[in-house]
Write a structure and sequence with these properties.
8-stranded mixed beta sheet, 287 residues, Isopropylmalate Dehydrogenase, 3 domains, alpha/beta, 10 strands
Length: 287
């Protein structure tokens, strides 16, 4: 597929088997064949098993120590499900396949780090998914991994509320009072530096952000629009809590650009470079 796309775009690319050694200008590529031929920009559910096989092979290689880190390109979740494979997203799939007890999605870019308490859920399902136990696990993983993966010795985490104006004392919702607040109080008593719950509409102002190393948003579209506005095309996604380093681009598949040569690779390049740096840091820590 990659060779075919290179020919289509007039690119001179030489792919080499990883075991054969690299020559100047070549790219090591572990070959996994398509299920059926692929046309750029055309979704085909018959290739859904192929997409999953790529992810599975990468997971196996990371668990075995064959690969130092994993960077994923965007996938089209809808066509994978159309192919008969239940698939919510990379983050959830990686957690299930590696047996990770709790994972946290963090996007970084534009001078911001934004983590999510819930990920790929319909908005109507978020309040039910937000529990004291789940939020506590998320914050513990986020705190530990900010130290481990990002080298922040004493992380300061700004925690958003769920409802408008932070619930307005319970008038707009009680999640801040009954779920978020009690968890923050418990963890602050253990020494974690947590500020909140903060109204999301004023959380992302410069003075507030200067007092934190990471924002924890309660749902996907509460935090990510701000980060993507600040860094789109250069932001990255990091999954914390996995037994391996995993990064990805901060955007979707852009099917309409496939095969045109106009897709912007900046975010994917940033994700690869971040994975390399995190893998090196992990190796140094292990030594």
């Amino acid at each position: 597929m990659l060779e075919s796309r290179a020919r289509q775009l007039g690119l001179r690319v030489q792919l080499s088997d990883p075991g054969a050694g690299l020559t100047r200008g070549s790219i090591a590529c572990l070959h996994i064949p398509l299920s059926v031929p692929c046309r750029a920009g055309t979704l085909d559910p018959r290739n859904a098993p192929y997409v999953i096989s790529l992810i599975d092979r990468a997971i196996e290689g990371c668990k075995a120590g064959e690969f130092a880190a994993l960077t994923t390109a965007p996938v089209h979740k809808g066509v994978i499900n159309d192919g008969g494979i239940p698939f919510v997203g990379h983050t959830e799939y990686l957690a299930e396949r590696t047996g990770a007890a709790q994972v946290v999605m963090v996007l970084a870019g534009g001078g911001l780090r934004v983590a999510l308490a819930t990920t790929h859920l319909a908005l109507k399902d978020v309040p039910r998914a937000l529990t004291r136990e789940g939020l506590e696990r998320t914050i513990r993983v986020l705190h530990a991994e900010l130290i481990r993966r990002f080298g922040i010795s004493a992380p300061r985490i700004l925690v958003a509320g769920l409802n408008p104006h932070g619930g307005e004392g319970g008038y707009f919702g009680r999640e801040e009072i009954e779920v978020i607040g009690p968890v923050l109080e418990k963890l602050r008593a253990e020494g974690l530096q947590l500020t909140g719950p903060l109204p999301a509409d004023t959380l992302f102002v410069p003075d507030r952000l200067a007092a934190g190393d990471c924002v924890l948003a309660m749902y996907h579209d509460q935090g990510l629009p701000v980060l993507k506005y600040a860094s789109f095309g250069r932001g990255i996604n990091v999954t914390l809590g996995l037994p391996m380093v995993r990064t990805s681009a901060d955007h979707g598949t852009a099917i309409e650009l496939a095969g045109t040569g106009r897709a912007e690779p900046g975010s994917l390049i940033e994700a690869v470079e971040a994975a390399i740096e995190m893998a090196r840091a992990e190796m140094r820590t292990a030594c």
